Amino acid sequence: MEIKKHKVNPEGEQKILKCAGKAIEKEQMIKGGLILEGGGMRGIYTAGVLDYFLEQKLFFSDCYGVSAGACHLCSYLSGQKGRAYRVFVNYLKDKEYCSLRSLITTGDLFGAKMCYDTIPNKLDPYDYDAFTAYPGRAYAVVTNIMTGKAEYKPLREMHRDIIAVRASASLPLISNNVYIDGIPYLDGGIADSIPIIRSLKDGNKKNVIIMTKEMGYRRKPTSHMEAIRIRYHKYPALVRDMARRHIAYNKTLDFIEEHEKKGHIFVIRPKVNPNVGRLERDETKLKALYETGYEDAKESLEDLKKYLNLS
Fold first, then answer.
1. Distances in Å between the alpha carbon of 230 and those of 29, 172, 241, 247, 286?
2. N or C: which end of the chain has fewer CB within 10 A?
3. What's the count of helices (H) and strands (E) in the chain, helices before strands?
4. Helices 44-55 and 68-77, interaxial angle, to 10°?
């Protein structure tokens, strides 16, 4: 399929909300953390929540995106309502976007050039100026595969820093290592899937977490550890973290659920299993999950305002 066949939504959803980017003043922002979990294509739930936040002019001083959450964070920070949905759905049939051919020929299931160059610079243009004018702080969470530690890369100039977003969303086995200043990185969800502790350390007493798994979900041990050991034998810290990932993730869930019950953390998550895979290609399912995220955010608004002490 040729790139020229793709067109930006003709109904004007490309436009920037006037409340976002350079039009929002720092004093209008919510002092607190906005934390976006990953989850592959399940992240389209987050896109729905964030689009509702844009409508309601809810902007946070500190934003943390992990994997797919980092990707959706970009369109939220530039105020481009509907763009995150389009980017995830409009190109599903394009082999340059996501295909076995791309994996075999480039090492990336999701084509890096398509996702991080062609789409933002040609097909569905990203508003770099609006992003730069956002008065808060934003971070893409990445995993240093040499140390196995999470790093929180500041997003300040997106032409340059989009490499951190790419690293955050590069899933093991189906993505190339992404090098930043000569250091190899992969999916931020390996080392810190839901960076609530980081946000607390940054001084955020109010934290809103958008999750892509339902209440009660618990991660199971990685089923493809043998492939991980073979592929990443030069990176023992990464192999160790992948083997323990379910333990660390479930401890984070326990922490979140405990403090959510106490009213210390506000969480928006699917009410039931969304039945959408990490590599989902069914547009109908994806649209439904996006709409679920939007409606869940809308339903949560009054409670969210009370939690944030908004009038």
1. 47, 12, 15, 22, 33
2. C
3. 11, 8
4. 20
Which letter does DSSP use for residue 211 in this model? -
Banded pLDDT at 25 (limits 50, 70, 90): low
280 vs 267: CA distance, rounded Å: 24
Tens of pLDDT, residues 125-177 = 999 999 999 999 999 999 999 999 999 999 999 999 999 999 999 999 999 99
Longest dimension (CA), the chain: 55
DSSP 7: -
pLDDT in tens, 252-297: 999 999 999 999 999 999 999 988 988 898 999 999 999 999 999 9
Spatial distance between the Cα atoms of 260 and 263, rounded to a whole number of angstroms: 5
187 within 8 A of 143, measured Cβ to Cβ: yes
Q: Give the helix/strand (H/E) hosting 203.
A: none
Closest CA to 252 of 98, 66, 123, 43: 66
Residue-wise pLDDT for 172-199, tens only, equals: 999 999 999 999 999 999 999 999 999 9
Nearest one of 76, 84, 60, 67 to 249, comparing CA atoms: 67
* d(C-alpha 68, C-alpha 257), whole Å: 22
The identity of residue 142, as a single letter, is V
pTM of the model: 0.91
Q: How buried is residue 131: exposed, middle or buried, by Cβ count under 10 Å (0-12/13-18/19+)?
A: buried
